[in-house]
Structure formats: structure tokens, C-alpha cells
Amino acid sequence: MPPPSGAYIGRLAPAPTGSLHIGNARTFLLAWLRARQAGGRILLRLEDLDHPKVKAGAAGELYQDLAWLGLDWDAGPAQALAASHPGSLPAVPDPYVQSENLARYREALEQLYRQGKIYPCVCRRQELQLFQSAPHSEAEQREYRYPGHCRGRFPDLAAARAERSDGKVAWRFRLDSAELTCFQDAFAGYQESRLDAWSGDFLVGRETEAGYQLAVVVDDHQMGISEVVRGDDLLPSTHRQLVIYRALGFSPPRFCHFPLILGPDGRRLAKRHGDSRLSRLREKGVKPERLLGWLAWCSGWNQDWRREVSLAELVATADFSRLPPQPVVVDKNQLAELGF
Q1: Domain-by-domain residue ranges, the chain?
Q2: Does domain 9-91+260-338 match CATH 3.40.50.620?
């Protein structure tokens, strides 16, 4: 499964909601390798629209983590450039920082509203829980299927706002009950879904602000991304994004979803599994080649997880067809020896 040839444009799209950990490092490494092996470009985009979770200083730290690991990019936030080129910050919105480009997302929301593809919703989370009668698939267990309570409920936006004491509404994408989404994932294979069966009309924004699903579609289209590389926990999101691509008249990129690194309990790696931040390794003076060697071992490219590996070696030898199809479960003893 070599990366596609031609005008390859990939991206690294971290969110400044906390420190990067080894799970993030593996996903970003795979995305970076796909681009470099294809002789293409890679863009860095700061996805900072999740305002309640965005942490002060997190963006600067993730730039340092990526640089420590050796993952470079061909274009990205001016703030990252300014760290090595003082005084270079432009006086215009940074195209690689989502929070500085809200106008382009508003335009997309307005287009979808004019087309009748989205409608205002005033439901609160507590109300949605009352609508739910049974849990859904494991991949979507944190969600409730939306039953369409506000679909067709309001004659116009003003009526919806009047229903809420704070006057604020959310926007939901109106799904066609018969709409099938399918795509051939570059790693996970053929994927097919009927969103209406497990998701229902899903959120794409609040008031004049777009949410994750809409923003990434607009960004990936405008940036000319040819392949989206990310963890397979986002496979369900891809189906949502595909219907948004259709509605906006955009051609979707190729998708490539890889298995995650999991904690010893088989759950997605998180703080509950201990401190696996890259900044911890940086502070201890650990060589990035040590972590790269372990990540290469996780990916089937290094027989001895203790052997240090360089990025140059990985670009020359990494074979994506050898990457295990199952998630990687961390070994606490290995992490302790690495420096965590």
C-alpha cells in the first residue's frame, strides 16, 4: 500500500487542547511518512475551534514536540515560523489557524442553509438523552442518535432563537434517510454506512460558528489536501464529512485510517494510563530516535524496539503493507524503559 504518486498534499492537524502523547506521535509520523515517501508536501493546521478545551500555551508546546520528533512541514501557522524567525508574524488572518478564518466557515454554513441542508436545533443534551432508547455501536457509544426533534419545527431562524432563553441555536445537517456513504480507505479497506441509522441529523455548528465536521471539510478542500491520514477512531466522522462534501459540491480527498495505540486496558490512550507526553521525554533529554525506534517497532518496521531509528531511515524503508491491521497495546515496561 504505497502512498499515491502525483501531486500529493497531506496535513498534520493537531488541536491545542493538551500535550501531544505517543499515540499522537504515531499518527503524525504515519501522516508525515505518507507525504515524504510520495515526494509531496505536508501542511500544518492548528484546529483550535473547540474553545472550551483549548489550553493556553498548548500550540507552542505542540510545535516544539513536532520539531523535536523531526516532523517538519512545508507550510503552516505563522506563530510556528516566528519561533525561528522573530518579527515575521503577518498582520492578516493566518490561513493555517482555524480560529482566524471563521468567515470562510460562516460562508459554508450560509450556503448549506440556503440549500436547505441544515436547520436550527434548540435541543439541550439532557433532552437528547430522553430521546434515546438504546445504545448504538461501540464506535459511537459516546453519542445519542438524534431523532429529528427540531427538523421542520421552526418556520425560520428567528422562531428557533425565540425558543431558547439565551437565543442561541445549533445547526444540524439534514440527512436523507436513504443516503448511503461509502469509500475505499487506503488502509482500512471498503467502508459503507447509512448515517441516519446510527447518527441521525448531526451537528455542524452553533450560531455563526462551524463545528469540527464542517470546518475540516472546508479547510481540506481549500488547502487542496489529496489524502487525509488519521486514526481509525475517526472513521465514523468520515461518513459525516462525505455528505458535507456532497452538499458543498466539493470532491473529497482520499482517506487513510490507521489503528490507534491503546492503553493496557484496550481503551484509547489517555491520562488514565499514565504520563506519555512527548514533552516529558524532551525534558529528560531523551533522543527522539529512541521513540522513533519504538514507533517503528509498533508499525512492524523495526525488529528490536530498543534500536534507535532515524526519520531518514524510515522514509527509505517504511513499508505500509507491513503495518499491523490491529491496534497497538502499550507495554508499561517498554514505556518505562523509554523514559515515561
Answers
A1: 9-91+260-338, 101-252
A2: yes
List, for residues 44-72, the tens digit of each pLDDT value.
999 998 777 888 889 999 999 999 999 99
Residue 80 has what pLDDT? Answer: 67
pLDDT digits 0-9 by tens, 288-339: 999 999 999 999 999 999 999 999 999 999 999 999 999 988 888 888 888 8
C-alpha to C-alpha distance for 74 and 44, rounded to whole angstroms: 8
Q: Are 190 and 218 in contact (CB under 8 A)?
A: no
CATH number of 101-252: 3.40.50.620
For cell 430522553, what's the residue? 130
- CA 301 to the chain's CA centroid: 25
Please report the DSSP string for 54-111 in residue order.
--TTHHHHHHHHHHHHT---SB--HHHHHTTSTT---SS--TTBGGG-HHHHHHHHHH
Exposure string (b/e) for 228-255, b if CB count within 10 Å is 16 or more?
bbbbbebbbbbbbbbbbbebbebebbbb
- Which pTM value belongs to this model? 0.89
